[in-house]
Structures are given as structure tokens and as C-alpha cells.
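Pasting as-is:
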Amino acid sequence: MNSIEIIDLKFQQAEKTIASFLIRGAGKPVLVETGPHSTWGELKSSLDRLDIKPGDLGALLLSHIHFDHAGAAWELAKEGVKIYLHPMGLPHLANPERLWKSAAKIYGDDQMDKLWGPMETIDERLLVPLEDGEMVTIGDLTFTAIHSPGHAIHHIAWKLNDVIFTGDVGGVKINNGPVVPPCPPPDINIEDWKSSVEKILDHHPKKLYLTHFGEITNPQEHLAQLIEVLDEWAMWMKVQFDKGRDLEEITPDFMNYTSQQLNRHGASKDLQSLYEYANPSWMSVSGLMRYWKLKAEGRI
């Protein structure tokens, strides 16, 4: 009998914003996602409470290489743990300098250590790329890689029996709040995202596990709501793009727009703060505006 443990990494001391998942079967346990290095201490303590040392893990599965999902992967690599990921993500974990610089442009150099912590190189021999539909078996646990672009071109959702660990392609939903799409630059592609959601539904999952945050027991309804909000956000941004407004003008308006959406769903101020930790609304402005720019240029 397999068990799935949701580990709350308490990002920025806030609960239920970033999760890792520990799966135990007959063999070595498997971890899905590490979170950022800034929460490495919390992850290590949680594993210790579960009587697991980092080196005891049979594998680490990453949905994608963004810092909030993979930032502490190098710590597990130091312990010899193999890391399974999308082929396009592999060179960025083997040499994270470009990834770091890209993130620093978004968050600012002065915020990188506080938010994410350091990211070190990983020996390529420990990085295992999986193609779409390829499987990895650890003990009696068999995971299937579902390539699922839309949020990131290097994104994988992981299927285990009748559940799927969705990374970010399954959206962000915290407590009883609504589901929203994380849309940071540079890879947002609405058409790809919708195709990925259909691909996930084709597997008929009974449950989804969201990195932001936790267990979803109504996958069809959840993903339908995600697509609805993704379309709403994208069309709101297209109006701004067509008007020729710049990012500085748009950002406060979009933050107000998303806040009003959360208000309509009855989200308290505290809950809205958690959403901002998990999915800062200002990030989606540049991601969606870039999408419309590329569309206008015929590049996607």
C-alpha cells in the first residue's frame, strides 16, 4: 500500500504555499519537488520527523526547474539521489547560472537569497531526463512522465496509479480559495496549457496533488475552473496589450483585478496574502504580456 505525505515547506514562514510530496511504497521512498533552498531546513526537518535521511531517498522527481520547485535539488544530489526531470531542464540544473540570472531579472538581485537561497551545480550523471510517457520504477512505485507545457516548456506532471502530481500546470489553490494560474515569464502559452490539461484529464485521475497546495479530490471541476480563470486573465491582459499600455501601468491594475476575484470567492485578507506568496500576481503581468507580444509577432 502506497502512502503520500504532504510536506508543508512553510515558505517565508507562511503555511500551505509550497509543498513537497513524500511517497512510500515497498522500497525506498520517493520525493516529488524540493521547494527552494530557502526552505531546505524545513524539508530536512520534516524528513527527519518521518525517520528519513536525504540519502535514503530512492529518487527525486521534479515537475520543472523553477526555484520554488527545484531550488534545493542540489542538496539531494550531494547525497547521491538521482533526479528525474524534463530533458530541457537538465542543462539548467547542471549549470544553473543562466537560470539564476533569469530569475534575478524578475525578482531583483537583492531578493534572490531571501526568497530562494543558493543554487549549485549538479553532476549530470545524477540528472535523468525522461521523455513524454516514459516510466520510472522505484521499488513498487511506478511513475509516468506526462510532458505538460503551458506554464513552462520544461514541465512534467507525474502520474502514480490514479493520482497526478501536477506541478504548476494544475494551478494554485490554497485552502478553500479559488484555483488560479501562475503565469510568470518566459514560457506562458495558453494553447499549450489547455492541451496539457486535456492530456492530464485523459489519464482520468481520481486526485491531483498541487505543489501550491495539496490534495484535490475533484480533478475535472478543478481543472475546468483553472481554464476558465486562465482565459479570463489572458483576455484581460490582451485588452491592455491592445491599448499599448506598459507593464508599470498595468501591474497595479492587474493586482487589483485579481484581488477583486479573490474577494468574490470570499477569500480573507490572510488567505489573499498566502496566494501572493505562492503566486505573486505581479509576475503574471510580464508573463501574459510576453505571450500576447509573441502571438502578435507570429512566434507562437
